[in-house]
Design goal:
Layout (H helix, E strand, L loop, with lengths): L1 E5 L14 H4 L5 E5 L7 H10 L10 E4 L9 H8 L6 E5 L2 H9 L3 H5 L17 E6 L6 H12 L5 E6 L6
Parallel strand pairs: 1-2, 2-3, 3-4, 4-5, 5-6
Length: 170
């Protein structure tokens, strides 16, 4: 089963909505969860609440995440990887809007590169072979932060490639 979910501010009434989106998708073999920007508050909060309740994604081979994964010190990303023992490929999509927001925030560095916890635990995603980070190669500082976070948590570290995000301008 393949699931493609695009969530935005109006997808939920507020951030306190109790839903089970992730649990309902736990049998997916391919899962795409995107939302416009990490700085949109509602979607990340709803999905983070759901992460606490969801089980293992035992069939998941491909995971494609939008910017919401980078909230709370990348907790959603690490949590999903820990719960995806069969994952083979990970695609992380950093939209230009999040980079623009990053540049204008007064505490942007603290938001994007939170202080490391004293006890960083590593874990293995034995089948994970490819990680692709899609972003603006010229200006986006977030890709290197993500590589650092992944290298602190994943052992062994799979092949990581940073590629340009393709945008169509009209």
């Amino acid at each position: 089963m393949t699931a493609l979910i695009y969530l935005f501010l109006l997808s939920f009434e507020n951030s306190q909505v109790q839903c089970s989106i992730l649990s309902a998708l736990s049998n997916a073999s391919s899962l795409t969860l995107v939302s416009p920007s990490v700085f949109e508050d509602v979607v990340p909060k709803v999905l983070q609440h759901d992460l606490l309740r969801c089980g293992t994604f035992s069939k998941l081979k491909l995971l494609h995440l939008g910017e919401w994964f980078s909230t709370r010190g990348y907790y959603p990303l690490i949590c999903l990887l820990r719960r995806s023992p069969a994952i083979e490929k990970l695609v992380l999509q950093l939209d230009k809007s999040g980079d623009d927001d990053y540049e204008t925030l007064p505490n942007a560095d603290a938001e994007i590169d939170p202080p490391c916890n004293e006890a960083v635990t590593t874990f293995s995603c034995e089948k994970l072979r490819k990680i692709r980070i899609l972003c603006d190669l010229r200006n986006d500082k977030r890709a290197q932060v993500i590589v650092g976070i992944l290298s602190a948590h994943l052992c062994p570290l799979p092949d990581i490639k940073i590629k340009p995000i393709i945008t169509i301008e009209v």
